[in-house]
Amino acid sequence: MSSNSSNFNAWLGFFLWVGLSIFALILTLGFEGEIANYRYGPGGWPRGVFISIIIIATLKLFFDIRQTKKVGSTTIDQEYSGLNLFKHFGGLPITTIAVPVVYTLLIMPFGFFVTTPFFLAGVMLMMGERRWKHILAITMLIFGLIIIVFIKFLYVPLPMGTVQLSYDISNFFLVNIR
Amino acid sequence: MENFYTGIELLFSTPMSVMLFFAALVGGALFGALPGISLLTLGAIILPFTVHMQATDAIMFYSVIYCSGVYGGAITAILFNIPGSPENAPTAFDGYQMTLNGQAGRAIGAAVICSSLGGIVSAIIMMMATPTIADWAISAFNSQEVFALIFFGLTVAVSVGAKTIWSGWLSVLLGLGIATIGTDPAGGIERFHFETYYLLAGIHFIPLILGLFAVAEVFEQSRKISRGENQKISANMKLPSLIEFWRLKFVVARSLLIGLFAGVLPGIGATLASFLSYNEAVRWSKHPENFGKGTLEGVVAPETANNAATGAAMIPLLALGLPGGALTAMMLGVFQIHGLEPGPLIFITNSDLVWVVFAAMFLANVCIFFVGYIETKTVVHLLRIPFQFLAPAILMLATIGAYSVRNLIMDVWIMFAAAILGFFLKRHGFSAAGVVLGLVLGNLGESSFVKSMQLMQYDWLGFFERPIAGTLIFAALATVFISFYKAIKQEFK
Fold it and tell me: How far is it, in rounded angstroms, from Cα B324 to Cα B313?
C-alpha cells in the first residue's frame, strides 16, 4: 500500500467520523431546548459526545498522516488506518454478508421453519463446503437441535410467516413439536 | 461462612441449577477456546434466554462462564495465537511461541493451574471484601461519585482492545453516541429516533453485542478461510512440574496482586490486569530477553492475573452497579432483565442471590483445577470441527437471540448492521469492547450526570468539593492528559 493510499484511508476515515458527528449535531438542533428541571436540555449530552468525536478524529487524522510521512507504508496503515471499504469488502466474500441479509428479508414472509434449513445450507456453501451429504447432515442436526431447545423447551416465539403456505407449514411444526 | 454455605445450598438446590452450573463451566471453557467464538459470544447468545431462567440461575450462569471462559480463552491464544478475549492477548505472546517450540502441553498446563489459582484467591477476596465495600458505598456514593467513577472507567476503557489511543477514544465515544438514541433521561424527550417508533426505546444492547462479537467474528473467520489463513495445530496435555512452579512463585504472587487491584477498577478489569502483569513479569525477570520467544513466565503472569481479576471485577458490579467489561455489562443486563438493580442495596434486598454468585465463582475455579486436564483434551478434539460447520450454528443462534429480545425483526437488522460495523472497526484497529462499554456506561453516565448537575446547581467544580468524586475526576483527567502526552511524545520522538 502506498503513502497516497494510506493518506486517502486516513482522510476517508476522518470524513466518515466527522460527517456522522456533524449530521448528529444538526439533528440535536431540532431537540426541544431547556427542560423544566434540567438546564442543558436533551441535546446537551449528545452534543458533548459528538463534538468530542470531531476533536479526536481530527487528532487521529493528524497523527495518521504524520505516521505515513515518517515511515511511509506501515503495518498500521495497511491493516487498520482509515476505512478502505472497497478493499476489505473485496477481502470479505460478499456472500458472507448477503446470505444473512437475504435470510432476514425472507424470514418474516416465509417464516422461520421454511427459511432456516436453506439458510443453514447456504452458510455452509458460502464458507466453501461442497460435500452435499455433509451439508444435509449438519443442516438436519443444527435445525433439529434448535427446534428441540428453543421451540420445545424454551417456547421461544419465532416468525410463522405471512404467506399462507409457509404459515401452514410453521403451524404443522409447532403443533407436532409442542 | 454461614452465608457461603447458604450460597452453596442454593446453588445445588434444584437439578436445573446443578445442570446450569456444569453447562456454564463446560460451555464457558468451550466457547472461550473455540476459534471464532468467544466467551462474549456465549454470553450474548444466552442473554435473551435468561428471561426464561430464575434470576439466581441466570446470574450464577454468567458468573461461572466468566471464570471458565477467561481460562478457556487461553487455549486458543496458546494453540492458534487467537486470544479468546482481550485479556488473553498477552498469553499468546509466549504461549503461541511455546506451541511452535513443541511445548503446547506445558503452556496449557500452566494456564490451567494459574487460572484456577488466580480465580480461587480472587473469589475468597471477593467474598470478604464486597459486603464491606457495599456498606461503605451506601453512605459514600451519590450520583456525583457514580458519574465520576463512570468517567474514570471510560477514560481507562479507551485502552481496551484498540490499536491506538485515538481509535480507543473513538470506539468509546461511538458507544456513548449510540446510547443517546431513544429518549433522554431528564425529560423523556425523543432523540435520534428518525420518526420510527422502533428506535424510541433506544438501541437494545443485546442485538448490538451479538452483532459486534458473534456475527462479526463469523465474518472475520470467513475472510480468513477465503484467504486460506486458518491453520490447524494438534496438541497434547502435559502439566509443568512442581519445581518449575516453585521457581515462579514470585511471578504468581505479583500477578495475583495486580489482578485483584486492576479487576476492581471499572472499565478495565482483566484486560489491564493481564497486560500489566505481563509487563511486570518482563520488568522483574532475570532474563527479559526470553520473553516473546516462549517462556513459561509469559503464560503464568497474564493467566494468573486475568483470572484474579474476574472475582475482583464483580466487586464494582455488585457493590456499585458498574460493569468492568463487556461480559459484566451483560451481567448488568441480566440483573435488569429480572428487575434487579445491582448496587449497595442488593446485599440487603437480594443477599441470597449475591452469595450464590460468590459460591458459584469459588466452585467454578476449584472445578477448573480438577477438570481442566480432561476438559482441555476434549476442547483440543473439538477444535478439529471445521469452521464451515460452526458458522451456521453461530449465525442461527445469534439471529434467534436478537429476534427473541422484543420479537422485532428490526433487532435482527440492527445485529447484522452491528456485525458489519464490528468487522470493519476491528479490522481498522478500533475496539468492539470499547463500543459496548460506551453504550452500557453511556446511559448510566448521562443519568448520573443529569442528577449531579441538578444537585450541584450546575456548578461543575462541585465535584471537587466531594473527596471521592473529586479524586476520581482528577484521576480521570490525569489519565486523559498522561495518555495524550505519551501518544504525542511518542509521535514526536
Answer: 6
B375 exposure class (CB count in 10 Å sphere: 0-12, 13-18, 19+): buried
The torsion defined by the Cα of A15, A21, A24 and A25, in degrees rounded to 10, comes to -120
Instruction: Supply the ipTM of this predicted assembly.
Output: 0.87
Residues B270-281: tens digit of each pLDDT:
766 777 788 778
A56–B166 CB contact, under 8 Å: yes
Q: Which chain A residues contact residue B403 at CB under 8 A?
A: 158-159
How many angstroms separate the CA atoms of B324 and B472, rounded?
16
476517508: which residue's cell? Answer: A12
The shortest C-alpha distance from B256 to chain A (Å) reads 33
Tracing cell 456499585 back to the chain, one arrives at B320
Largest CA distance in chain A: 68
Query: In the structure grid, which three cell numbers stand for residue B235, read together?
Result: 496438541
Q: Does B428 touch chain A (CB under 8 A)?
A: yes
Global pTM reads 0.72
Which one, of A85, A93, A13, lies nearest residue A54 by Cα?
A13
Residue (of B428, B401, B425, B438) closest to B325 by Cα position = B438
Of residues A38, A49, A123, nearest to B187 (C-beta): A38
> Are the beta carbons of A45 and B166 separated by less than 8 Å?
no
Quick: pLDDT tens for B178-188: 999 988 888 88
The C-alpha atoms of residue B117 and residue B256 are separated, in whole angstroms, by 9
Name the residue type at position B198. Answer: Y
Output DSSP code: residue A147. I
B286 phi and psi, to 5 degrees? -75, -20
User: Closest to A57 (Cβ–Cβ): which among B170, B226, B392?
Assistant: B170
| Contact by Cβ (8 Å): B178, B208 | yes
Is A27 in Cβ contact with B166 (below 8 Å)? Answer: no
pLDDT band at A75 (very low <50, low <70, confident <90, very high): very low
Q: Are strands B182-183 and B190-191 parallel, antiparallel or unpaired?
A: antiparallel
